[in-house]
């Protein structure tokens, strides 16, 4: 399969074995960033309106749309002057992701009432289950008195005690409700938990069904990828309330999981450095090129184009690549557009464990995710305060680059462990930080169009993308030309 895809991309002219050598004046370590003019808003605007257009159909990982977008990016990287940094002299590093989903052969019924998956029931977890159990309806979520052992507990969904002041509240509500109420019942021996939907669950039903039916993804060879039997959680429409309250009601649940292999790909380019020794080290620029594809939801637009998430950084990296090609640093610049980030940081997890350059040669990771929205003068840099900071040196360089150029007012809340979004753990710098490489994360944070069809290029602030790209470039330029590489904090340990 990989070779067929390779040939398909080759036929599009996106794979180049070599790039014509260029002659550059060596950079001096103390030089200011010399090629800021190569990072042009006009280029960024043109690129983002292409990448986030309907042509690429939302670039969902594991689909031809993601691979088509990857081929486009590779061709743009070649045009920017980058040399191939992937496998076998290409711009591509293919990897296999495993999709586990509930099979259509799965069945759920209460008494004589069949309850089809997705239209009549939502199952947020992907796990096998085979249960015949009596149903115990509990008027309130009271785990202290009821004897739930061996029973399927049924209760009304409720936002009571749940913080819904989060991104995508309709999508996250089912899992938050399950965590708040189902966990205590399972601890007391319940074999299943059934939630009867409230108005919030009903409002988010089509959207959640379009995600839950996709299942869960992991990497080939991941030892945590085994799907085991687990007590199920179900969400049913309000019409099922009378069924679960019927005396003597029982539920039959037979959940079966099927598995598929899908290809995804990292796009990798290199701008070689000028120093005979330091050019063997790399400043890694990181972003992801996939998004959420086409979803079966009500409304006129079903394509999640992902202009901010994360075409904004993808096109910024192209602009930074042009700057480094115009004036290379002493160290090399490594550009990676990761695949399958939305499926669980799969592309960055793969590269962190299967790098195409020596692991020890990567001196720092400058990752970006969503840099084109919100206040034009504000941004955030995550990984700058403990426990998320893993390199005091790297943070100092990034902050100096901000003071030198764009002078963004920096949010400090999103980098705290107490921040409800857990934003630090949701982008591609994380596998590198866990692997012991200095890493930081540039972002302009969340907004109401996040993971909706409204994340369109027409809503993007391309001037802001340009300024953040220049900030990332200034940071990388300093790293590429300093005599020493940033050191790791010896006491770095993430809270989870």
Task: Describe this entry's structure for a reader.
The protein is of the alpha/beta class and 496 residues long. The chain has eleven helices and 20 strands. The chain has helices spanning 2-11, 41-51, 64-79, 169-187, 199-212, 241-245, 307-326, 346-353, 392-404, 429-434, 462-481; strands at 83-84, 92-102, 107-110, 113-114, 121-122, 129-137, 152-156, 192-196, 216-219, 233-236, 250-255, 257-271, 282-288, 293-294, 303-304, 332-338, 362-368, 378-382, 409-411, 439-443. The strands form three sheets. Strands 1, 2, 9, 12, 13, 16, 17, 18, 19 and 20 form a ten-stranded mixed beta sheet that branches. An eight-stranded mixed beta sheet has the order 4-3-11-6-7-8-10-5. The protein has a two-stranded antiparallel sheet with strand order 14-15. The two termini are 36 Å apart.
Number of strands: 20
Number of helices: 11
Helix content: 25-40%
Structural class computed from helices and strand pairing: alpha/beta
Q: How far apart, in Å, are the first and last alpha carbons?
A: 36 Å
How large is the radius of gyration? Answer: 24 Å
What composes the largest sheet? 10 strands, mixed
Poorly predicted spans: 10-23
Q: On the 0-100 scale, what is the average pLDDT?
A: 92
Shape: elongated
Taken as a percent bin, the fraction of beta residues is 15-25%
